[in-house]
Write a structure and sequence with these properties.
Helices cover about 40% and strands about 15% of the residues. The chain is α/β, with parallel strands linked by helices and about 150 residues long. Strands 3-2-1-4 form a four-stranded parallel β-sheet, with helices on one face. Helix 5 links the parallel strand 2 and strand 3. The longest helix has 18 residues. The model has no long low-confidence stretch (mean pLDDT about 90).
Length: about 150
Amino acid sequence: MASIRRPEHKAPPEIFYGSEEAQKYTTNSRMIEIQTTMSERAMELLGLPDDVPCFVLDLGCGSGLSGECLTDNGHYWVGIDISRAMLDVAQEREVEGGLVLGDLGDGMPFKAGAFDGAMSISALQWLCNADKSYHNPVKRLFKFFTTLYA
């Protein structure tokens, strides 16, 4: 029964994260704390230098909470997300990263070698769903990871 509470089991991300849910997510102090902690750990795992700014891709950037951590640590970033509402909240919040509307399952629309690293906090599990009749999770994951590798 606990799995029904997971957002990815309720609706596709571009629908689940509509304007109301996007605002709630971004102002929830528990969510902010979790995103910050996980983002700091992701930066640590990436081994980003403290003294040299890096250019990082934030996969499933949402409203830019993870990107803010990158900015606070002196890095530059571009975020991609499928939810227009989440990106609208990021714009309202005037985050410093670039924002791209896109579906991770369609592959990365960026030039190979453009980024020093990539991070994703709570987004990749959405690729395992078949939210549309033409979605094949295996193909979507393959497309994502092969284009990300570039």
